[in-house]
What we know:
Blueprint: E1 2-10, H1 16-32, E2 36-52, E3 55-67, H2 70-81, E4 85-92, H3 95-106
Antiparallel strand pairs: 1-3, 1-4, 2-3
Amino acid sequence: xxxxxxxxxxxxxxxxxxxxxxxxxxxxxxxxxxxxxxxxxxxxxxxxxxxxxxxxxxxxxxxxxxxxxxxxxxxxxxxxxxxxxxxxxxxxxxxxxxxxxxxxxxxxxxxxxxxxxxxxxx
Length: 122
C-alpha cells in the first residue's frame, strides 16, 4: 500500500463541531476503503494566502494514511461534492517524505540546541 498525505481547507463559517463532523466523514471513507490512518494534524483556523470564495481564512486539516490507490479517486470525489471543502490536495509520499514525517512526529526537529558558552579565563 502506498502512503499518502491529504490536506483540506474547510470554510471558516463552520462551527468547530461541524468541522470535526466533516473530518470524521472523510476519515470514515478512508477506513471503510481499507486505509490505515497513520497521523492526523488539525492546524485550526489559518489565514489564506489569497481569498477563496471571498473568504480570507479557513480550517486546515492534514491526514496521513496508507491506502490502496483506488480509494484516492473516491476520497477526492467526496471532497468535490462536499460544499464545506474549499480546497484539497492529496499527494503520494515517497520514502524520503515518509522518513521525514516519522522524524517530525517523533520530535527530532523540536530539540533546541543550546549555544556553547565560552569560559572566561581569570
